[in-house]
Design a protein that fits this description.
This protein is of the alpha+beta class and 289 residues long. It contains 10 helices and 6 strands. The protein folds into 2 domains: 78 residues, Winged helix-like DNA-binding domain superfamily/Winged helix DNA-binding domain (Arc Repressor Mutant, subunit A, Orthogonal Bundle), CATH 1.10.10; 143 residues, Muramoyl-pentapeptide Carboxypeptidase, domain 2, CATH 3.30.1380.
Length: 289
């Protein structure tokens, strides 16, 4: 009877290690899960990650240490948003290298093409290109945000969900509300302290936005028009931040003038009866991490 030949091991690899090379490393798969969770939830603590992924504290620390050694995540010190007191807590966020690993690998030709466009037609051509790109986003997002109703927090959550669908990993967090309290517990003299932070943990066009700030400017303008309030950019991935953070004040009704709105006629000699000056969209970017 002829014996069935055995498959030869990979060249230069001992037979007992062949299976290890063909099989995916379980630790690598697990760390990919951890990296995705940091992208989605960051800045996030080790305890929160462990609860979310079902890991023991020791296992969680081991994976976080490995990702940190590989330069894929960083530690950010964060103070409590409620009191601002106490020792800053350790929170994990993706590093620039981690952002690249999660999908910022589009061709450099896009940046080169826009640079050539700017050289040939001036910076206005780049601004118009960015405006056209984000006009499509505004058109798609508007019915989603409008469906959330007039409540600004609900509209911000709807916007975050739409951003997540497009790969921006959006989330919201209300700040300025006392623990266990609601909007009514805020003193009437300080309603502007209550706000929503709209965060984007990933930017599919981060490289382009780093080279051409017009992309961030146009995106911020879209947010302001969709939400109907004056918003401010606190940080951007493009400027070196760990996340893109947009400040949305809840103590105001609207800061974006409604086209065609008019009030009763007022005497030009009566300053008190004069209509208020239209609000200006502020898209200030501090670029802080």
């Amino acid at each position: 009877m002829t014996a069935t030949p055995r498959a030869a091991p990979a060249v230069g690899v001992p037979a007992d290690r062949t299976a290890q090379i063909v099989s995916p490393d379980p630790d690598e798969r697990t760390r990919d899960r951890v990296l995705s969770a940091v992208l989605e939830r960051g800045p996030v603590s080790a305890a929160e990650l462990g609860d979310r992924l079902g890991f023991t504290p020791a296992a969680m620390r081991r994976h976080l240490d490995a990702l940190s050694s590989d330069g894929l995540i960083e530690v950010k010190r964060v103070r409590s948003s409620a009191t601002g007191a106490g020792r800053p807590a350790r929170r994990y966020v993706l590093s620039q290298r981690g952002q690249a690993k999660m999908g910022n690998d589009y061709l450099d030709i896009a940046t080169a093409a826009l640079a050539q466009l700017g050289a040939a037609a001036g910076p206005e051509a780049i601004e118009e290109f960015a405006r056209t790109r984000f006009s499509g986003m505004e058109e798609r997002y508007r019915p989603i945000v409008e469906a959330a109703g007039p409540d600004l927090e609900a509209r911000a959550r709807a916007l975050a969900a739409a951003l997540t669908t497009d790969g921006f990993v959006g989330s919201t967090k209300t700040v300025g509300r006392p623990p266990g309290g609601g909007v009514r517990s805020i003193p009437a003299a300080r309603p502007v302290m209550l706000s929503v932070q709209l965060c984007q943990g990933h930017c599919p066009i981060q490289g382009l936005a780093s080279a051409f700030p017009a992309f961030c400017e146009q995106e911020t303008g879209v947010f302001a028009r969709l939400l109907g309030v004056d918003v401010r950019r606190l940080s951007t991935l493009a400027a070196g931040g760990h996340v893109c953070t947009t400040h949305i004040p809840l103590g105001r009704t609207t800061a974006v003038p409604v086209p065609g709105a008019s009030g009763p006629a007022a005497s030009p000699d009566d300053p008190a009866a004069a209509p208020p000056a239209p609000a200006t969209l502020s898209i200030h970017q501090q670029g802080r991490p």
